[in-house]
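This part of the workshop introduces the protein records we will be handling. An example says more than a description, so a record of this kind follows.
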Amino acid sequence: MYRMAYSQDENTIVYLDKSGNKHIRKGGNLSWRINNPGLVRSHSHYAFRHGSIGSCKGFAIFSYPEQGHMALAAWLHSKKYYNAPVRAIAEHYHPKNADAFAAKLSSCIPVSIDKKLNTCTSIEFQILLKVIEKLCGYELVGNEEACVLPKITAKIENKSEEDTYLIGTDLVLSKKEAMEWVKTNRLDAVIIHHKNGSEHLRSRPSHCIWSIQIPEEAISPTLGEIQTLIRAVGKKKPGQCIWGFINGILNSREGALESAELISGYTDNEEVLSLPNDSFLLGAKDAGVCISLKIGIDTPIVSWAAKFFRYLLALSNKEDPTCPVIVFAHSQGAIISEHALRLLNADERQKIRIFTFGGGSFLEVDSCHPDSHNYASENDLVSSVGSPYFRSLAVHRYLGMKEGLTEEAVIKRWALDDALLYLDSVDSFVFESFMKQRINHYESLMKKISNITILDPDPNCYVEHQFCRECYQKEVKRLVKKYKGSSLTAKIQEKEEELLYV
């Protein structure tokens, strides 16, 4: 998952993934911060062999605690220690006070400290590993923090007030607050100091900050009936699916129509209806006004989205009740869909298939039609703001499967990591019971993320969020192919044509 890591300060470790995103671990014990339960030395070839990605105070930093656990086991199997008594381990960890460390080992393990490691049974060896890790401080103390640092999405320029900054998709900070977040390792950005004493915020390489201007004139919601406000691209064809689209934030009218036209193009120019989330939302036609939604200006977009869904359902019922209603929602469109669904009744929700791409949040399982699904590129962090925990689980499942692991093996890895971190007992029965409980826990979570798919990113793109990106368009094409012409009317017409031909 991570390509490198380093120590930011005495209490903080920074991890960088292959997309250049910063992940922070702060607080807690050192062995927890560096994912190195047994504090294996960084210069050891056992550390490199098991995936060391950095060094802190002479100890290796790993991506996962499982790697550190395996490195410790391999180190204990070396000739120097495997043929030596347990006491030699104490001399390594505390050469100046080996007797005290040996006494702690002796009180926690079921074997003599004079016993050689190569004569230990597998259970005794595992207990020894567990005790060493506990003595190295691999346990929670209560002040641990682990997170991916958010980036600045846009600088919001307001002539009448001080500029503010949009963080992720739904948090706005003043310049002073944003700089404080950078200084305290809560925001992924750079502070530039000028000779005249002024300070400015900049993004790190490979990330672009939008510059948005908010108009000073009053902004009022657009009025009108939903059918007069909906934009349509393509041509209505008999028996076609009811295609809908809701664009995300920072989309102009033209940009939203281009996305809808992409969908229409895959359907052989069938009609696609788009909810105007730019000009309709706040009564303006430029993308910058969409930011107003995020800074507290009231908008009717959620209620209008519910009307949009009902309008699509009405079209389906009018022509053919079996005609699927398919809605593609991008970025903020997923958040709008999530809230709008709550305004529909259960029967209405179950008739709408919604597919989100780079969503600001993930739709929950069973929130609408069972076919509905969430897609996010590995390099698209927008969903980490609205659904951070579920996205993190989905990404770790995705990365584990890319390693060649099955879903069952991924769950066992998570359960083992928890056992190393949380379990105090060295009793084998307790260990097995704990593992079963954690496996059951993660299996239930897997059901909750069963409607989330992390997509392979473009290797040449560090930040991948636009709807037009190939990784998203590939899925749109597949979904269009799956549902196109699947209504009852189309099937009847197809059958009649076959009979005429015969």
Q: What stands out?
A: The chain has 20 helices and 19 strands. Confidence is low (pLDDT under 50) at residues 216-223, 279-298, 488-492. The two ends are 58 Å apart (CA to CA). The chain has four domains: 27-135, 151-213, 226-380+457-491, 389-450.
